[in-house]
């Protein structure tokens, strides 16, 4: 890195409540679900959604969802805990490889630690260059684009803007595919591999995809590449979409319906992995590892195993460093000694 220019990397994830309590969940859901990137609609549609959100959803959902959070909470929300671990591990790896490593921070789109406050604080501390890595391998207007929006709002009106780069997606990056394949391989080495590998992605409303959100295509591409890396034949894996919200149609095939139909077709064992999540969270630890396990068993399935997210596995942290290297090569100066050391191993 050039001597006098302070550079930071921010790992950015969606966000999560501060506590597993109804009031904290309400605050989080209000911020998240008020974003018109997440629930689209203009004019009357927007007014109707805000009425439903404020008068119905925010009165009924927080208590139910807080209970789900309590079932997975450790000393913090798993997403925030894992994001902090990813920050620590990436910082260590960068320090081993660079004379002057950039500083790595965490930032959430909704809730804390907030991306907006992180950017303000970095600017206040004289950082001029920032690489933001959204922790979503597949781009979606519902998740990645809000990060671009926050950066645009941050820059607006600044006399000297910060030099900010954002990694748009990494759904097909060989280092990410390798980290995912490795995590599946390691899991299947220590457990009996199931006859079917299910790759379950968070869904989005079908309407958004029909209007051009590239998310589903990127999910399918990730699946194809992972299956190829694992040497799976076509009938050994399936791509599905989870986490439906509201009455509209979402991306299909749905995870729960597919589990039921697999069990009905006498598939007795499935392994499930969630490649849209780089950190375990409510959607993986509760919805996939618990709720959907019950769905499969109730439908007659016998063995259901959830394969954890890539989290802070060495291969995923190495993938993050590769992204840093590629996206900010001109900002960084490789530590020749560390480089020689790595080559000698
Ligand atoms: C209402 C619309 C929603 C869209 C569109 C959506 C897209 C989307 N979300 C993720 C990743 C995560 N979502 C998580 C929780 C979550 N998601 C929604 C709704 C939408 N998501 C809600 C209401 C919630 C909260 C829980 C609930 O009330 O059911 C999480 C987990 C957060 C945690 O604290 O652990 C993640 C991660 C992606 C990747 C995505 C589109 C591609
Ligand atoms: Fe979501
Ligand atoms: Fe969910």
Automatic annotation (TrEMBL):
Record-listed E.C. numbers: 4.98.1.1
Q: Where in the cell is it found?
A: Cytoplasm
A GO cellular component annotated for this chain's UniProt record is: cytoplasm
Which keywords appear in this protein's UniProt record, sorted alphabetically? Cytoplasm, Heme biosynthesis, Iron, Lyase, Metal-binding, Porphyrin biosynthesis
Q: Which GO terms describe its biological process?
A: heme biosynthetic process
State which pathway it belongs to.
Answer: Porphyrin-containing compound metabolism; protoheme biosynthesis; protoheme from protoporphyrin-IX: step 1/1
Q: Which reaction is the catalytic activity of this chain?
A: Fe-coproporphyrin III + 2 H(+) = coproporphyrin III + Fe(2+); heme b + 2 H(+) = protoporphyrin IX + Fe(2+)
Q: Which residues bind Fe(2+)?
A: 202, 283
Which Gene3D superfamilies does the UniProt record give?
3.40.50.1400
A Pfam family annotated for this UniProt entry:
Ferrochelatase
| Alphabetical list of PANTHER family matching this protein | FERROCHELATASE (PTHR11108), FERROCHELATASE, MITOCHONDRIAL (PTHR11108:SF1)
Functional note: Catalyzes the ferrous insertion into protoporphyrin IX.
- Listed name of the protein: Ferrochelatase
Biological source species: Neptunomonas japonica JAMM 1380
Identify the gene encoding this protein: hemH
């Amino acid at each position: 890195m050039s001597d006098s220019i302070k550079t930071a990397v921010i790992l950015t994830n969606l966000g999560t409540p501060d506590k597993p309590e109804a009031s904290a969940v309400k605050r989080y859901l209000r911020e998240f679900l008020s974003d018109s990137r997440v629930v689209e609609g203009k004019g009357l549609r927007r007014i109707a959604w805000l009425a439903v959100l404020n008068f119905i959803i925010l009165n009924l959902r927080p208590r139910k969802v807080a209970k789900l959070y309590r079932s997975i909470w450790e000393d913090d929300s798993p997403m925030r805990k894992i994001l902090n671990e990813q920050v620590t591990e990436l910082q260590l790896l960068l320090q081993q490889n660079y004379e002057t490593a950039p500083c790595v921070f965490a930032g959430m789109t909704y809730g804390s630690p907030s991306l907006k406050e992180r950017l303000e604080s970095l600017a206040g501390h004289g950082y001029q260059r920032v690489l933001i890595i959204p922790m979503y391998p597949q781009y979606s207007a519902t998740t990645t684009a809000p990060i671009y929006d926050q950066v645009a709002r941050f820059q607006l009106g600044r006399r000297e803007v910060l030099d900010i780069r954002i990694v748009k997606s990494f759904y097909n990056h060989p280092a990410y595919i390798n980290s995912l394949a490795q995590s599946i391989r390691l899991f299947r080495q220590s457990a009996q591999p199931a006859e079917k590998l299910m790759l379950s992605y968070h869904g989005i409303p079908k309407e958004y995809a029909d209007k051009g959100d590239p998310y589903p295509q990127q999910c399918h591409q990730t699946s194809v590449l992972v299956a190829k890396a694992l040497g799976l034949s076509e009938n050994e894996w399936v791509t599905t979409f989870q986490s439906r919200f509201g009455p509209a149609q979402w991306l299909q095939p749905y995870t729960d319906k597919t589990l039921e139909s697999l069990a009905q077709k006498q598939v007795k064992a499935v392994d499930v992995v969630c490649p849209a999540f780089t950190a375990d969270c409510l959607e993986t630890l509760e919805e996939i590892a618990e709720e959907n396990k019950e769905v499969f068993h109730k439908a007659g399935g016998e063995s259901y195993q959830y394969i954890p997210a890539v989290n802070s596995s060495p291969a995923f942290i190495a993938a993050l460093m590769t992204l840093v290297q590629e996206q900010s090569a001109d900002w960084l100066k490789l530590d020749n000694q560390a480089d020689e050391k790595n080559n000698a191993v």
